[in-house]
Amino acid sequence: MSVTLHTACVLIASSIFSAVLTIRTTKNVSTQVPAALASSGLNATSMTELISGIAGNPAGDFTSIPGVTSAIAKTALRAYQNASADAYGTVFLSTLSFSIISIIISFWARNVNDKLTKDLTTPIYTRRGEIEEKV
Question: Where are the domains of the chain?
Fold first, then answer.
Protein backbone atom coordinates (compact mmCIF):
# COMPACT_ATOMS: atom_id res chain seq x y z
CA MET A 1 0.00 0.00 0.00
CA SER A 2 2.76 2.45 0.88
CA VAL A 3 4.57 1.75 -2.40
CA THR A 4 1.39 2.56 -4.30
CA LEU A 5 0.93 5.81 -2.38
CA HIS A 6 4.57 6.71 -2.89
CA THR A 7 4.33 6.03 -6.63
CA ALA A 8 1.13 8.05 -6.91
CA CYS A 9 2.68 11.00 -5.06
CA VAL A 10 5.80 10.89 -7.23
CA LEU A 11 3.72 10.82 -10.42
CA ILE A 12 1.58 13.73 -9.30
CA ALA A 13 4.57 15.78 -8.16
CA SER A 14 6.50 15.05 -11.38
CA SER A 15 3.53 16.14 -13.45
CA ILE A 16 3.11 19.34 -11.47
CA PHE A 17 6.81 20.22 -11.53
CA SER A 18 7.20 19.56 -15.26
CA ALA A 19 4.07 21.61 -15.98
CA VAL A 20 5.40 24.48 -13.84
CA LEU A 21 8.77 24.26 -15.61
CA THR A 22 7.21 24.25 -19.08
CA ILE A 23 4.89 27.15 -18.36
CA ARG A 24 7.57 29.28 -16.72
CA THR A 25 10.17 28.52 -19.39
CA THR A 26 7.74 29.49 -22.16
CA LYS A 27 6.77 32.68 -20.36
CA ASN A 28 10.36 33.65 -19.53
CA VAL A 29 11.71 32.91 -23.00
CA SER A 30 8.90 34.82 -24.69
CA THR A 31 9.62 37.93 -22.61
CA GLN A 32 13.35 37.91 -21.86
CA VAL A 33 14.85 36.69 -25.14
CA PRO A 34 13.04 39.13 -27.47
CA ALA A 35 13.92 42.00 -25.16
CA ALA A 36 17.61 41.05 -25.24
CA LEU A 37 17.55 40.63 -29.02
CA ALA A 38 15.75 43.94 -29.57
CA SER A 39 18.37 45.73 -27.48
CA SER A 40 21.09 44.19 -29.66
CA GLY A 41 19.40 45.52 -32.81
CA LEU A 42 17.90 42.40 -34.41
CA ASN A 43 14.75 42.82 -36.52
CA ALA A 44 11.51 41.02 -35.61
CA THR A 45 11.53 38.65 -38.60
CA SER A 46 14.95 37.21 -37.76
CA MET A 47 14.13 37.25 -34.05
CA THR A 48 11.35 34.65 -34.41
CA GLU A 49 13.56 32.36 -36.47
CA LEU A 50 16.44 32.69 -34.03
CA ILE A 51 14.32 31.97 -30.95
CA SER A 52 12.79 28.85 -32.50
CA GLY A 53 16.25 27.75 -33.59
CA ILE A 54 17.70 28.12 -30.10
CA ALA A 55 14.80 26.22 -28.57
CA GLY A 56 15.35 23.33 -30.99
CA ASN A 57 19.16 23.25 -31.06
CA PRO A 58 20.99 25.55 -28.64
CA ALA A 59 24.39 24.45 -29.96
CA GLY A 60 23.58 25.30 -33.57
CA ASP A 61 25.17 27.91 -35.80
CA PHE A 62 22.67 30.75 -36.22
CA THR A 63 24.78 33.14 -38.27
CA SER A 64 23.04 31.88 -41.41
CA ILE A 65 19.86 33.70 -40.28
CA PRO A 66 19.72 37.16 -41.91
CA GLY A 67 20.92 39.89 -39.57
CA VAL A 68 22.34 37.51 -36.96
CA THR A 69 25.98 37.97 -36.09
CA SER A 70 27.98 35.82 -33.70
CA ALA A 71 27.57 38.50 -31.01
CA ILE A 72 23.78 38.52 -31.42
CA ALA A 73 23.73 34.71 -31.35
CA LYS A 74 25.72 34.74 -28.09
CA THR A 75 23.35 37.35 -26.65
CA ALA A 76 20.34 35.23 -27.62
CA LEU A 77 21.85 32.07 -26.17
CA ARG A 78 22.73 33.83 -22.89
CA ALA A 79 19.20 35.30 -22.64
CA TYR A 80 17.72 31.85 -23.31
CA GLN A 81 19.92 30.31 -20.60
CA ASN A 82 18.92 33.02 -18.11
CA ALA A 83 15.23 32.53 -18.91
CA SER A 84 15.56 28.78 -18.36
CA ALA A 85 17.45 29.30 -15.10
CA ASP A 86 14.72 31.65 -13.87
CA ALA A 87 12.14 28.95 -14.61
CA TYR A 88 14.03 26.47 -12.43
CA GLY A 89 13.86 28.99 -9.60
CA THR A 90 10.08 28.82 -9.76
CA VAL A 91 10.20 25.01 -9.74
CA PHE A 92 12.40 25.18 -6.63
CA LEU A 93 9.86 27.39 -4.86
CA SER A 94 6.99 25.04 -5.75
CA THR A 95 9.09 22.09 -4.53
CA LEU A 96 9.69 23.93 -1.29
CA SER A 97 5.97 24.37 -0.69
CA PHE A 98 5.31 20.65 -1.30
CA SER A 99 8.16 19.74 1.04
CA ILE A 100 6.75 21.87 3.85
CA ILE A 101 3.34 20.26 3.41
CA SER A 102 4.95 16.79 3.45
CA ILE A 103 6.84 17.54 6.65
CA ILE A 104 3.66 18.74 8.35
CA ILE A 105 1.72 15.65 7.22
CA SER A 106 4.52 13.35 8.43
CA PHE A 107 3.68 14.25 12.04
CA TRP A 108 0.47 12.23 11.67
CA ALA A 109 2.23 9.14 10.32
CA ARG A 110 2.29 6.27 12.77
CA ASN A 111 5.51 4.86 14.18
CA VAL A 112 6.54 1.56 12.57
CA ASN A 113 9.65 0.83 14.67
CA ASP A 114 7.91 -2.12 16.39
CA LYS A 115 7.52 -3.82 13.00
CA LEU A 116 11.23 -3.65 12.17
CA THR A 117 13.29 -6.79 12.81
CA LYS A 118 16.78 -8.01 12.05
CA ASP A 119 15.44 -10.81 9.83
CA LEU A 120 15.51 -10.78 6.04
CA THR A 121 12.30 -11.57 4.19
CA THR A 122 14.12 -13.10 1.22
CA PRO A 123 17.18 -15.31 1.26
CA ILE A 124 20.50 -13.95 0.10
CA TYR A 125 22.36 -16.22 -2.29
CA THR A 126 26.10 -16.66 -2.48
CA ARG A 127 28.02 -16.58 -5.75
CA ARG A 128 27.71 -20.39 -6.00
CA GLY A 129 23.92 -20.19 -5.79
CA GLU A 130 23.66 -21.44 -2.22
CA ILE A 131 21.49 -19.76 0.39
CA GLU A 132 23.66 -17.80 2.82
CA GLU A 133 23.20 -18.62 6.49
CA LYS A 134 21.68 -15.96 8.76
CA VAL A 135 24.23 -14.07 10.74
Answer: 2-104
